[in-house]
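#structure-requests
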Amino acid sequence: MKLYTKRHIFLGIFFTTLVYILIVGGYLFFSYKNDSSEKENTSKQVVSKETSESSISPPMILTEPVSFEGKNYVLELPAWYSSEDNLNYTQDEIQNISVYENCNEAVVNINTAVMGVNWFLEPVPQEGGSGSGSIINGEGYVVTNVHVIEGAYKIYISLSDGTQYEGKVIGIDEASDIAVIKFDPPKDVELKTIPFGESGNLKVGQKVLAIGNPFGFERTLTTGIVSGLGRPIRNSNNVIIRDMIQTDTAINPGNSGGPLLDTQGRMIGINTMIYSTSGSSAGIGFAVPINTAKRVISDLIQYGKVRRGAIDGVLVQLTNSISNYAKLPVSQGLLVSELSNNSFAKQTGLKAGTEAVQYGSRYNSTTIYLGGDVIVAIDGVSVTSLADYYSLLESKKPGDSVTLTIIRNRKQQDITVKLDEA
């Protein structure tokens, strides 16, 4: 058995610790050297990347007219834009900013007050709805939706600078859900307006922008595309509005009545409604095309109403019970019950009924006349309801002629009828 003194044990511990320190130190030294090499390589790669990126040309900005489908277009740049902004904004962003800065001041916030009743059945003013509108000329005329101001006894129009004016109704048209209201600005105030565009040449996929006041957030910009054209949509008043523009631009409560714009900042539609199960935007919104709105707005300002052509008489929507009782060969269409004596329709050959019958319930009946013509189409488009009839004549004026497809003596025939004023 071998014995060790304290001196031997101390020296053993000392040399063991020294070897351990040398091993750990060597490991740390080589690790640091490798890390330094990797950082140097990374730095070189970053410099190389920056050099490479600096050689990339900035986004192209159109300042000269370009030709597309035979037409010249030019992107109008905002006043603040400079060539250095090429590095900060894309062409699409510059376009959005330009449209917003040119148009947002012409979009107004509309709030209404309605009359309600309290517990004692006394009339009391209450807060109504809210929506958007567009200033269309310097005299203070604003276009919006009928449902935005419906039932209001007070209308308040707020401008972008925070000033508020009381508005008055110039005219409403429920058939298109378009209303024109007006406020009186001070003479020294120059109003910003939105110009009308053209909706007849829109294409599906075309970029559009909407400005409005969704949920009270004033002058909010959203963008999207034209998702569909020529959509017939039935509104809350059971009136079919034809040729609606469908868009995926976010339209929420408060956007109603605001403008749908093209990339040049021209109004191509009036945002009207959305299709949603939640009440918020689901990417399916609808706008009244500006070509329809222009005619409606002109009539509302000039006459206070829209002058449309119509058949001057009483038309009854067919039901199965009426059809079976009268032994008609069709169960859908409009029965010509009565015609005014001096109406164009009567003068041009349309025939009214002669056999008076009571129609309806025992306590709520009306008199209709059987034996007259049954209108089943107008200008080749099928008519199955009064909503179809009003929709098809929406763009017609007094004095215009239409071709009616009718059932007379159980036979189908076409006749041309001149329209009276509705």
